[in-house]
Structures are given as structure tokens and as C-alpha cells.
Amino acid sequence: MLHEALRGVVDPELGADIVELGMAKGVTFDAATGRAEVTIALTTAGCPLRAQIQKDIRARLGSFPGVRDVHLQWVEMTAEEKASAMAHARWQARAADDATRIPLTTKIIAVASGKGGVGKSSVTVNLAAALAARGLTVGVMDADIWGFSVPRMLGVEGRLEAEAATPPLAGADAEPGSDPSSDPSPRVLITPNRRPMGAGAIEVVSMGLLVEDEGTALMWRGLMLNRAVQHFLEDVQWGDLDYLLIDMPPGTGDVQMGLARMLPRAELIVVTTPAVSAQKVAIRAVDMARRSFLRVVGVVENMAAFTCDHGVTYPLFGEGGGAALAEEAGVPLLARIPIEPAVATGGDTGVPVALGEGPAAEAFRELARLVVEEAVPPVAMAGCSARMLDLAVAALDAEGL
Ligand SMILES: Nc1ncnc2c1ncn2[C@@H]1O[C@H](COP(=O)(O)OP(=O)(O)O)[C@@H](O)[C@H]1O
Ligand SMILES: [Mg+2]
């Protein structure tokens, strides 16, 4: 099980996960002591990404219930193993155009909840805004296909540019005389709507930016009912994102499964209200993530106690749900966002409250700080200026392999 979880750890230099690359050599887990031991084979002992990989492995494995201590052992690959890892990386680089177009240096956070109306979209857009305000580039994928609300909340409502793409390898694979335009479902590449925000920028993709009217909506529905999210994952030309936040549809259905399959490196933030009943529903999202080996980063409690102008606090939606969920899931409670009319008006006007003032704004900014500094730090590529992959490919090509 822990071995599977390591699939969520990618070597951004080699462009594949560490299991695929043969870097995860051995994983043992002693349930009695809670100690996990992992042996990782590096291509070069001095790899500057070692610290990054180490952090990722600790975070991934440490988020599993019962794992108290993650012990890492480093070895160096044999020449043979290295050649095979490089060959795999090279294959991966060629196939990359076919898979998701999300840069490997992008940290992916899915925002989920057991049910709708708990403020999942509000948390997504405000976390995005607070991260952008720190100078980061943040993609927001609105995977709540039919309940989309992200474009309005982030004030990006212009139509998306979508261009038909030549199907991959069309030239090579097409039979002589066949007409590529007869392909019933040509691929459409989507350019996200980009908008500067704070010192950074956001890029948004949503069904709400694709459909013009009911008629078009129906067409999309027919064209790719269950494939919409896959389409968003595969065919969006994201920029150089630091983070991609995914506003998940409520519940624990197909979209979650698809995401886990296509993006095992995604990590999950679960949103709940302070009500205990909400916590019981939210735990399902946690269980689902665990079954798919996605890391649960932590819990955000939204709609926490409202404080009126006179300083009196009213726990309108109950109390303690976030802490209880975090405790049950064995993950940190990352934030408690108070009920504040400004959260709703910010959503209506397209200016997220996180860019303004007040207790909710501060809570969102503190959440962003925790994400960047502790929970899901951005990938630091510093020190890896000589791109190993390019060198490896050049070396292999020189040998005529
Ligand atoms: N902390 C909050 N304070 C006040 N209103 C909120 C807060 N969080 C969300 N809302 C409002 O509650 C409603 C539901 O939130 P939304 O983010 O759309 O939930 P979800 O995406 O989970 O369905 C929206 O009208 C939103 O403006
Ligand atoms: Mg929503």
C-alpha cells in the first residue's frame, strides 16, 4: 500500500514518478512501531532534488494512519538501472504531449467536500487569490462541471480560446488516403483565461467559460458527458504554474476516481462546516482519497463562528466539526474561516475577499502561508540548472540507443 502511495512522488527532473522510474527500491512498514523504511535509488548521489523528494516522501507516507516515522535510506543506481530509468524518462518525455499538460513542477491541490454548499468553491478561489497575492502563478480548474461558479467568483468571464488540435501522431498513423478531419472527436486545446492578481497571476478553466448558451451546453454534454474532466486534465495548455487548485464536484463519485487515476500526485484539502453532521459526510471524501492513495493535506473548516460588529460571537453552524474531522482523519486542521458577508459579496463581484481586509481575509492568507511554508511547498528547481534529462537524452542519442 505504501509502495503505491509513492506513485504520488515525482522526480520533476526526470518527469515520472519514482515507482515508475525504479527509484523506490524497497518499502517496509512495521505496524507495531509505526515505522516505515524506504530505500530510494538516486541517479546521482548529489542530486539537488534529493531534499525535494525526501520532503514529498515524508509528506505522502506520513499522511497515512499509523505511520509515525519515515526512515529514508539513499543508494545510488547501478549503471544498468540508470540506463533503464533514463530510457523510461525519455519515453515519458515523448509521450508527455499525450498525457496531462500540467507541468511536473506544479503542485496540485484538489479541494473536496462530502457535499455541496459548504464553501468549497469559496475556499478554492480565495486560496488561489491569496497564493497569487504572494507572487505565485496559480491555475484553477473548475471540475464542478455542471455546478460551476469559479469564473464569476474570480472575475474571469471571457470566453476561453479553444482550437482544434491535430490528433497526436496523425501524420504517422493515418492510413494513406484517410481524411483526418473525419475523426469524430478531434482534440480541442484550451488556453485558460489568465489574469494578473496581486504580485502573481491566476489561470482559470471552467465549463462556464466554454458554454455560451443552453444549446452549446447541450452539445458539450452530449460530446463528453463523463469525459469533461479528463478533457480539462489533458487538453489545457497551462502556463508555468506553481499551483493548480481543482474545485471538485461535491461527493465522492466518478470524477474523484478519474482524478486519482490520472493525477496520482494530486493532494487533497477537505472542506467542512463546523456541524458534526457535515463532518460525517466529509470523512467519506477522506476515505475515498485514501483508497486511491491520494495524500490528504488537511482540513479547512468554513463558516466557523460569526462575530458581529459588537464583538459577540455566534457559532451559527455549530462548533468543532473541523477539529473533529481533522482528528478522525489524522491530518492537521489548516484553517477556520469565519462566516462573513464579505466572503459572499467577494464571490458575487469577482474580487475574492482574500485580497481585502477582515478576519476571513486574514484566515485565507494564513491558510496560503501554511500551504506554501509547510503543507504543500512549491517545487524549488533551484540548483538543477543543468537539466539531467536533456543530458541523458543527448548521451543516449550519442550512443545510438
Ligand atoms: N465563510 C463564509 N461566510 C459567508 N458566506 C460564505 C462563506 N463561505 C461560503 N459562503 C457562501 O455560501 C454559499 C456556498 O458557498 P460555495 O463556495 O459556493 O460552496 P460549494 O462550492 O461548496 O457549493 C455561497 O453563496 C458563498 O458565497
Ligand atoms: Mg461550488
Task: Report on this structure.
The protein is α/β, with parallel strands linked by helices. The chain folds into 2 domains: 2-99 and 385-398, 2-Layer Sandwich (GMP Synthetase, Chain A, domain 3); 107-375, Rossmann fold (3-Layer(aba) Sandwich), CATH 3.40.50. 36% of the residues lie in helices and 23% in strands. The protein has 14 helices and 17 strands. It has helices spanning 2-5, 50-62, 79-95, 120-133, 150-154, 170-173, 214-224, 228-234, 254-262, 276-291, 321-329, 341-349, 359-375, 388-398; strands at 10-11, 16-17, 24-30, 35-42, 69-76, 107-112, 137-142, 161-165, 187-191, 193-197, 200-206, 243-247, 267-272, 295-304, 306-307, 313-314, 333-338. The strands form 5 sheets. Strands 10-11-7-12-6-13-14-17 form an 8-stranded mixed beta sheet, with helices on both faces. A 3-stranded mixed beta sheet has the order 3-4-5, with helices on one face. The two termini are 35 Å apart. 41% of the residues are buried. Adenosine-5'-diphosphate binds at residues 113, 116-122, 149, 302-303, 337, 339-340, 343-344, 347, 360.
Low-confidence stretches: 166-183, 382-387
Number of strands: 17
Q: Say what the CATH topology of the largest domain is.
A: Rossmann fold
**What count of domains describes the coordinates?**
2
Taking all residues together, what is the mean pLDDT?
82
Rg calc: 22 Å
Q: Could you tell me how far the N terminus lies from the C terminus, measured between alpha carbons in angstroms?
A: 35 Å
CATH class annotation of the largest domain: Alpha Beta
Structural class determined from secondary elements? alpha/beta
Helix content: 25-40%
Discrete helix count: 14
CATH architecture identity of the largest domain: 3-Layer(aba) Sandwich
What does the largest sheet look like?
8 strands, mixed
Question: Which homologous superfamily in CATH is the superfamily of the largest domain?
Answer: P-loop containing nucleotide triphosphate hydrolases
Strand content: 15-25%
Oligomer: single chain
Within the largest sheet, what's the order of strands? 10-11-7-12-6-13-14-17
Bound molecules: adenosine-5'-diphosphate, magnesium ion
Q: Sum up the overall morphology in one term.
A: globular
